[in-house]
User: Fold this.
Amino acid sequence: MFSRWPLPRFGFRHGRGEATAEHGARFRATILPHLDAAYTYARYLARDTVAAEDIVQEAFVRALRAMDSCRGSEKAWLMTIVRHCYHDWLRACRFDIPSGPAPDDDY
Assistant:
């Protein structure tokens, strides 16, 4: 499979609430192959390549943390996470303050 980016290497530590090596191997085998589809979907939603990269990065972090809740189709599960990350990104961008000069209201 062709990938836009090199596959990331995840460092996993053992401990409470953290991923194990088995968890990381399962993530690489089931979720990581859908990286291109997730990026394409995020780019379609955001219509911005830089924003799409940020959205996909956040989606993969959330997917890694919630890997145990994945039931059924991994791709559909991941696309749902991408969509939720897009909505969070959109909400965050909605309240950005414009960086340009304020208009003069002097009459």
Summary: The radius of gyration is 18 Å. The chain is about 55% helix and 0% strand.
